[in-house]
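ingest -> validate -> predict -> emit
validate: passed (alphabet ok, no gaps, 165 aa)
predict: started
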Amino acid sequence: MVNTKIAPCAYGQLCRNINVSIMYSFIRLLAQEFILLSAIAFLAVCILAFTNPQAVMDLVQVRLPNTDAYSSIRGAYGGVGLALFISLVYLLLRNRRTGLRFLCLLWGGYALSRMLTIFVEGALGAFGRQWLFIESIGFLMALGLLWVDRGDVLTENSLRSEGRR
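emit:
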């Protein structure tokens, strides 16, 4: 007769391996969704800039006076936004952690620019405050996901090296 019982130690180890695997999959999914959400946000601004540059500038109550101004908005928000979207999709598919690093720099850079404006020019309006909040949350989310998405934290080898096995 074959013994089909799992020894308590082996069962506990099996459960720990399954839980670590589930947690790592969940963190990986959250990171991918955050990269995708960021990519879609840049694509939305890109499409708006390509189709109606004035609508982009209406968000900050600025009138575009000539075709050079329209061209600049299409380039800065449309062309660069498209490059950001493509880059983020590529990183989503090829290297999630590099994508999170990139988003730390991107969202952090935006937030830093707004904070610099506060110190140099003064208080932001409602639009600027809203986007400072959004960009700061984006930076913190990317940084947090990058920190918890460290593969060595969740591997069996790290559990073994810490004596938790």
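The two ends are 31 Å apart (CA to CA).
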